[in-house]
Automatic annotation (TrEMBL):
MF terms (GO), sorted A to Z: ferrous iron transmembrane transporter activity; GTP binding
Transmembrane segments: none
GO CC term (a single one): plasma membrane
InterPro entries associated with the record: FeoB_Cyto, FeoB_GTPase, G_FEOB_dom, P-loop_NTPase
Domain FeoB-type G, residue spans: 3-165
Domain of life: Bacteria
Name of the protein in question: Iron transporter FeoB
PROSITE patterns, alphabetized: G_FEOB
Organism expressing this protein natively: Paenibacillus monticola
Coiled-coil parts of chain: none
Any Pfam family matching the protein: FeoB_N
């Protein structure tokens, strides 16, 4: 039986570890304060005919290399290329949480959006239009309560559809202002030429435009560890990189 990898990403304190523990039977640290998960934990679970390896990533507000946690989550999603990235959002603060979801979606369409704490949202009278969000983002969106074990089967059904490629979506394409789009257009072919089609070139170009040296360092380390040296990376990518904001 093949095993699919599911990475749990999301802002701190959105219930990733609660869901992870529920599915895997493990006991990752949970609690009502941010930043509990510091290293990624792994555990297994089964749903219907498939086996999954769940990876509980540290909570992050972005994938912009602001901290070791963000770098770890970013590197896992880009370089390990999980079969599914499950973005766990807090239903009571969707606007803030969707920021990370958009960043993940720019990297990969192999994503399921899991809106957790739906019990809390209902208590507060927050009504969430799942269909509309799913249509806008192009990926499945499921509401759950990990603590109360609500919606879990429906969530895993969607995870299965993405893992088995029954449901597919390209990375979400966000259009930036003209200056940034010009930079992306210039850099993306160079990125593709240098690293091939293995990694999300447009997103990497965008991060390089922002002067994200940490991503460049990770890219080089990763390519080297896979025996794919990057001749001229510095020349190609280091040249013309300007911060846009
Ligand atoms: N009301 C409610 N609370 C929940 C639910 N799921 C998780 N929680 C609570 O939310 C808090 C945070 O849960 P964690 O699972 O530790 O969150 P996390 O995303 O792993 O947090 P970090 O590791 O810090 O990123 C805990 O107090 C959980 O009991 C839910 O469905 N409803
Ligand atoms: Mg956690």
């Amino acid at each position: 039986m093949s095993q699919y990898t599911v990475a749990f990403a999301g802002n701190p304190n959105t219930g990733k570890s609660t869901l992870f523990n529920l599915l895997t039977g493990m006991r990752q640290h949970t609690g009502n304060w941010a930043g509990k998960t510091v290293i990624s934990a792994e555990g297994e679970f089964t749903h219907k005919d498939h086996q999954y390896l769940a990876v509980d990533l540290p909570g992050t507000y972005s994938l912009y290399s602001n901290s070791a946690d963000e770098e770890a989550a970013r590197d896992y999603i880009i370089f390990e290329q999980p079969d599914v990235t499950l973005v766990v959002l807090d239903a009571t603060s969707l606007e803030r949480n969707l920021n990370l979801a958009l960043q993940v979606l720019e990297i990969t369409g192999r994503t399921v959006i899991c809106i957790n704490l739906i019990d809390e949202a209902r208590r507060l009278g927050i009504d969430i239009n799942l269909k509309k969000i799913s249509k806008r983002l192009g990926v499945p969106v499921v509401a759950i309560s990990a603590r109360n074990k609500i919606g879990i089967e429906a969530l895993l059904d969607q995870v299965e559809l993405v893992a088995t490629s029954v449901v597919t979506a390209p990375p979400l394409r966000i259009t930036y202002n003209d200056e940034i789009e010009r930079g992306i257009a210039e850099l993306t072919p160079m990125v593709e030429q240098t690293i091939g089609s293995m990694y999300p070139a447009r997103w990497i170009a965008l991060r390089l435009l922002d002067g994200d040296d940490s991503l460049l360092t990770s890219l080089k380390a990763n390519m080297n560890s896979k025996g794919k040296a990057l001749p001229g990376t510095k020349e190609v990518l280091g040249h013309g990189v300007t911060a846009c904001h």
